[in-house]
Amino acid sequence: MTTEGFEQATFSGAGLACRRGGRTVFATLGFSVSNGAGLVLRGANGSGKSTLLRLMAGLAVASAGALQWNGTPVAEDPEAHGTRLRYVGHLDAMKPAMSLRENLAFAAGMWGDARATRTDVALNAFGLGKLGDMPARVLSAGQRHRLALARLLMVPAPLWLLDEPSNALDDAGIAALTSVIADHRARGGMVIVAAHGAAPIDRAETLDISGFAAAVSPDWSDAA
Predict the structure, then answer these.
(1) Does the pTM exceed 0.85?
(2) Residue 2 belongs to what H/E stretch?
(3) Cβ neighbour number for residue 1 with a 10 Å cutoff
(4) Partners of 64 in the beta sheet?
(5) DSSP 137
(6) Between the CA of residue 215 and those of 28, 210, 218, what are the distances in Å?
(7) Which of 14, 39, 31 is nearest to 189 (CA)?
(8) Does residue 194 contact residue 50 with C-beta atoms inside 8 Å?
(9) How many whole angstroms separate alpha carbon 100 and alpha carbon 95?
(10) How many other CB atoms are there within 10 angstroms of residue 35's CB atom?
(11) Helix (H, G, I), strand (E, B) or coil at 163
(12) How many helical (H) and strand (E) elements, i.e. helices and strands, does the chain have?
């Protein structure tokens, strides 16, 4: 067990393929991350970085291959997989009439912790502590994104999946995110980030999605 309480684990994928709009986006793709690991997904627009993250999060289904947690297919228990990950995509999914505290408490409740005891910790980590009682609708785009990222700290989960997490963040926001990611990994967490530019993660491996698309010929047999 790590200091955070995460069990020793490995999250992996093998032979993964995805089709979109009648074409193969990527195929024969594999990866593996374990406690404390960081993985950065790279690739041109349309190469499938966001799609791969959604597959990892259980929000989409691969056309081939399988995801595994400690050697057991994720598909055998998708609900269990959902409890061990936190996914932050391009949409902030804030409830504008709720305060920042209420938004975080709502997220914590969805993950099974109605007490929301980590609210102040989460807000302060992203420089939002003084805004906790304000409605989310008054936030700037960058502040909304910080609030979405603050959810990561509400209920511990070993696997973080972050899609372009630096978008809309200023230098202070990127520094805060980099620190939060480093702390999560130090406690045994795993972080997978899709990024175009600099990624807010140190000492991470890189997976170039474009390399898996380049060797695949388009197939229009099931085009709409």
Answers:
(1) yes
(2) none
(3) 8
(4) 17
(5) G
(6) 10, 9, 10
(7) 39
(8) yes
(9) 9
(10) 18
(11) strand
(12) 7, 9
Position 30: which residue type?
Answer: G
Q: Report H helices in the chain.
A: 49-57, 78-83, 100-110, 119-125, 141-150, 171-186, 210-214
* Cβ count near 214 (within 10 Å): 10
What is the per-residue burial (b if ≥16 Cβ within 10 Å, else e) of 179-189?
Answer: ebbbebbebbb
The structure tokens listed for 150 are 């603050």
| Dist CA 140 CA 159 (whole Å) | 28
Q: Phi and psi dihedrals of 179, rounded to 5?
A: -65, -45
- Give residue for tokens 């932050």: 88
Beta bridge partners of 86: 160
What would the pLDDT profile of 83-105 be if each residue is shown by its tens digit? 999 999 988 888 999 999 999 99
Tokens of 89: 């995509």
Secondary structure letter of residue 136 according to DSSP: G
13 φ, ψ (degrees, to nearest 5): -140, 145
Tokens of 78: 């998708």
Q: Which of the residue ranges 45-59, 112-126, 129-143 would you say has the lowest mean pLDDT?
A: 112-126
Q: What is the DSSP string of 13-26?
A: EEEEEEEETTEEEE
Contact between 186 and 141 (Cβ < 8 Å): no
Contact between 1 and 7 under an 8 Å Cβ cutoff? The reply is yes
The distance in angstroms from the start CA to the end CA of the chain is 49
